[in-house]
Structures are given as structure tokens and as C-alpha cells.
């Protein structure tokens, strides 16, 4: 039985297998994890240092040691007198006068009789109704003629 040799290769080793490993990219990739860890530790240290020193220096030297500001009463002066220019109102709008007949002309008098137009009391018949029977497609029920019926009205005593 043969023994297997397990070789753990990293992704960087696979990428740079047949290439120049002394070039800067290989070195940067190999040291990437160390650089990230160092940067994280430095930034956490810079963030935590003010909190640590404020706790060590005592209770009276922290944020609570900021002197209180005394309240001051500020008197407001009235605004200065400024003259506001008076704007005249716009001119009133007037309606134009209607045209009148020329007073120098005499009135027109005619002796012709006036023709009277007879008034028709019957409702107009729709175009699609012939002899009281609708023909074709009626547009609506309003086109149908109205039929008068004798309906007895009941009057309460």
C-alpha cells in the first residue's frame, strides 16, 4: 500500500505555480492576512484608548467634569422703525360701455306686418319611430313616444 502525502497548498500557490514568485504581487498576497489583522488591532486600540483613560483618570475628570454654563437672560430689542413705501392701488377696472345706436339717425319704422310663428305642442318624433312602432335599433328608451293613459287619482277624504 502506498502512503499518500497530503500537501496543503493555498490558492496563492496555485495561482503563482508557474510564475515569478519573487514579484511584488505574490509577496503582497502572502502577507495580506497579517496586514488585515494588524490594521484591525491598531484601529480597535485607537477607539478604545479614550474610554480606558477616561475610566482610569477618575470620576471627576470625565465628561461630567465639564463646567455648567450659566443661564443668561438676553433682552431682545424692538425692531427698528422702517418706513414701508405705500404702493398705490391699481386703477379700478371699468367695463367698456356698450355700443349705442347713433342718436342722429331716425328710428326704422316699417309698415310690414309681423309674421307670427305657430307653436307646435306635439313632441318631436324620433327618427327611428314609424307609426308609433320603433324600427331598427333604438338608442335608448327616451326615443320611444310617450303614451297618455287614464290613471285615476285617489284623493283621501
Folded structure, characterized:
A hairpin with a 2-residue loop joins strand 1 and strand 2. The chain is mainly α. The protein has a two-stranded antiparallel sheet with strand order 1-2. The mean pLDDT is 76. The radius of gyration is 54 Å and the shape is elongated.
Categorize the overall geometry: elongated
Tally of helical runs: 3
Q: By helix and strand content, what is the structural category?
A: mainly alpha
**Beta-strand percentage range:** under 5%
Quick overview:
This protein is mainly α and 157 residues long.
Topology of this structure?
Layout lengths: L10 H5 L8 H7 L1 H25 L72 E2 L2 E2 L23
Antiparallel strand pairs: 1-2
What brief labels describe this structure?
single chain, 157 residues, 3% strand, two-stranded antiparallel ribbon, 24% helix, 2 strands, mainly alpha, elongated
